[in-house]
Specification:
Blueprint: E1 3-7, H1 20-26, H2 29-43, E2 54-64, H3 74-79, H4 88-99, E3 105-114, H5 121-129, H6 150-154, E4 156-167, E5 170-178, E6 182-183, E7 191-198, E8 219-227, H7 233-250, E9 254-258, E10 261-263, H8 268-275, H9 291-299, E11 301-307, E12 311-319, E13 328-331, E14 337-341, E15 348-353, H10 357-365, H11 383-404, E16 412-418, E17 431-432, E18 446-447, E19 463-464, E20 468-477, E21 484-492, E22 498-507, E23 510-513, E24 516-519, E25 523-525, E26 528-532, E27 537-544, E28 552-557
Parallel strand pairs: 2-9, 13-15
Antiparallel strand pairs: 1-7, 2-3, 3-8, 4-5, 4-8, 5-7, 6-7, 9-10, 11-12, 12-15, 13-14, 16-20, 17-19, 18-28, 20-21, 21-27, 22-23, 22-26, 22-28, 24-27, 25-26
Helix pairs in contact: 2-7, 7-8
Length: about 550
């Protein structure tokens, strides 16, 4: 078995070493590998043989270079990449990979699945050779353009992976490297393509595969060869498994083993509580917390509704004062987290699930490549249908929330009491300023803390005169059409004057501005609300661009 790189001709692109997809996935390799690898495994469940649960084994190890005939030649191909570039940043990046090469062994990360069907020739060739091509096992699978395979290359200093698979036809084994166009090892001045292969796509005898990579059970094993050194990688992987796949594990669709630590339906609650000791959650990023949502599915109230294009869906809602985000997490049939939205008040959490086959297919078609959003903008052919579906999901959440929170039948209710606007406490006390503020040169800067344009107290220059004592929102349901509007009650001071605001929703961990449709007392310009708060008790009727309940708060805009 030898490495083979095609000769680079004048009709082929010369490809550099720095790859956008690889760099993107390399920012968070644990998350990238977990989401890409496990969703591929979940797609391949061997339903025909009565399997109901996928098992994924993720483990680190080392293999002697001598056990892989001619494999180490990839190192020479990597070193020759430098010869075809004059870009200093490219040279530096290639050298970083070369410097990581180990002496006698290769570190690797193995991701193997069981109770799956393995890969036939077409999906095997697609995984190793396809560009923006993904051949999945069913139409409702997670995959789209196959760009997720860059996660494996990003985790390897050799930019190399080995794939071993067994399906009902037999075994296949192949290595693939994605480096850059480079000079040949054997023919002077000959240029080679950026992608190379170690083996082919045809069936092979399992005994001809190096022992570590042999498979005797149906399924697929992917080995990231030349694993970057990353202390604590196993713990990072466990965190990402829990963040992204807690639902599939809880529902006994998935078992994941990370370096011999098995996470299953029996211990999922214990593991989530161990790794996430509180409920503080974030909408995106590496601090997301699955605990509020697991407890919501376990202890919350379930609602069901038929939704256009995706059929019957479920929604679980629960209340806990420690739920800081007020979000609903979205899932499809594979029960991998797609995304969250702030649909609820702080103190509530929700889980939305479309668990039927047809709905799974539709949602996959309006999902982006990273599997972290549903949008009518993803698929132009489904734009109108997607708008209807996503609107009905929002309405389902709002209607269920109104019922669950006890607001059904009420014409108004308190959404949020903001008695500490600009970090002030109510009651008119003066606030000490630690240091003089710096001049604000950006008129559009949004401030959520003490604003320097409040007037200075002439008696005590170290304090400011309060312009607002308190601001409270109350939400109202219009009985005519069940739409939601908000009343804003501001207690100002006589010297307050005209102030400019935006309205945001969310918490400290997830903030976003929301569009203002109308205001009864103020003026609107470019989504900025201008109010004269010199009126001691100003009440403003506000309509926001949202069909569901939100928890709004004011954010000051400097002049």
């Amino acid at each position: 078995m030898e490495w083979k790189f095609a000769q680079l001709t004048d009709l082929m692109d010369q490809v550099g070493f720095k790859d956008n997809d690889i760099e993107k996935f390399g920012l968070d390799p644990a998350k990238s590998i977990v989401r890409e690898a496990i969703q591929n495994s979940c797609d391949a469940l061997d339903i025909d043989n009565g399997k109901t649960q996928v098992k994924v084994v993720i483990k680190e190890g080392k293999v002697e270079k001598s056990l892989l005939p001619n494999f180490a030649k990839i190192e020479s191909h990597l070193k020759n990449c430098i010869e075809l570039t004059t870009d200093p940043s490219e040279i530096q990046e290639i050298q970083r990979h070369i410097d990581a090469i180990e002496t006698d062994t290769y570190s690797y990360l193995e991701i193997s699945d069981y109770n799956t069907i393995g890969m036939g020739q077409v999906p095997f060739e697609s995984l190793t050779q396809g560009i923006f091509k993904s051949t999945k096992f069913n139409t409702g699978s997670q995959g789209s353009k196959g760009v997720g395979k860059a996660a494996y290359y990003a985790s390897s200093y050799l930019r190399t992976m080995l794939i071993s698979t067994l399906n009902d036809e037999g075994n296949r084994f192949r290595g693939v490297a994605k480096i850059s166009s480079h000079l040949s090892l054997d023919v002077p001045a000959e240029k080679l393509n950026y992608k190379g292969f170690y083996g082919g796509v045809d069936l092979v005898d399992n005994n001809d595969i190096p022992l570590l990579f042999q498979r005797t059970e149906l399924g697929t094993s992917i080995f990231v060869m030349g694993l970057w050194t990353s202390p604590g990688l196993d713990e990072e992987i466990i965190y990402e498994v829990l963040r992204n796949y807690w639902f599939a594990i809880y529902k006994e669709q998935l078992v994941v083993s990370v370096n011999d630590i098995e996470i299953n339906a029996t211990n999922i609650e214990q593991n989530v509580a161990h790794y996430f000791t509180d409920y503080k959650d974030y909408k995106t990023g590496d601090k997301q917390n699955p605990r509020p949502y697991l407890e919501t599915v376990k202890n919350g109230k379930e609602y069901k509704k038929e939704i256009a294009n995706i059929g019957e869906c479920s929604l679980w809602l629960s209340k806990n004062d420690d739920f800081n985000l007020g979000a609903v997490a979205r899932f499809r049939k594979t029960k991998m987290l797609i995304y969250k939205e702030n649909d609820l008040d702080v103190g509530f959490a929700g889980v939305f699930l479309c668990d039927n086959k047809d709905g799974n297919v539709f949602l996959k078609e309006i999902e982006n490549d990273a599997h972290d959003i549903w949008s009518e903008k993803i698929n132009k052919n489904k734009k109108d249908e997607a708008k209807v579906t996503l609107k009905e999901i929002k309405e389902f959440i709002r209607e269920s929330y109104v019922d669950y929170s006890g607001m059904s039948g009420k014409s108004s209710f308190t959404v949020d009491a903001i008695d500490s606007l600009f970090n002030f406490s109510a009651g008119g006390r003066k606030t000490k300023r630690k240091t003089a503020p710096k001049p604000d040169t950006d008129p559009k800067r949004v401030r959520t803390d003490d604003d320097s344009d409040d007037p200075i107290d002439p008696i005590d220059p170290q304090t400011r005169v309060r312009r607002i004592d308190s601001a409270k929102f109350k939400a109202h349901i219009d009985p005519a059409d069940q739409s939601i509007y908000y009343s804003l009650n501001i207690t100002g001071t006589s010297n307050a004057g005209v102030q400019r605001f935006r309205i945001h929703i969310g918490t400290d961990s997830s903030k976003e501005a929301i569009n203002i449709i109308s205001s009864s007392s103020g003026q609107l310009n470019d989504n900025v609300l201008t109010l004269d708060i010199s009126q001691i008790n100003l009440v403003d009727k506000i309509v926001l661009d949202s069909t569901f309940l939100v928890a709004p708060y004011l954010v000051s805009i400097n002049d």
